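Structure first, sequence second, as always.
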């Protein structure tokens, strides 16, 4: 399980599991329960790169980021750490 502390959004953190570049599970702590449950259902079983492409840069209201955008930041950080470990 990986943990990412968010910034600038209502959700406080994102917890996720990845297996072979596929999102196995995701949980948002805090935030809008219905919307975040919907995001969870949409992304579980999907490839990391597909989610990054779809969600990167999505704003929330007048904020420059959103829970989906924060998820992309978490996934990019995950990919960076994986690349460093295999180098």
């Amino acid at each position: 399980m990986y943990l990412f502390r968010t910034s600038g959004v209502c959700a406080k953190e994102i917890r996720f599991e990845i297996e072979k570049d596929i999102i196995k599970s995701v949980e948002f702590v805090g935030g809008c329960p219905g919307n975040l449950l919907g995001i969870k259902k949409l992304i579980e079983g999907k490839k990391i790169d597909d989610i990054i492409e779809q969600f990167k840069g999505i704003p929330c209201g007048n904020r420059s980021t959103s829970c989906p955008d924060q998820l992309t930041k978490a996934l990019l950080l995950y990919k960076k750490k994986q690349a460093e470990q295999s180098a």
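Margin note: The chain has one domain: 2-86.
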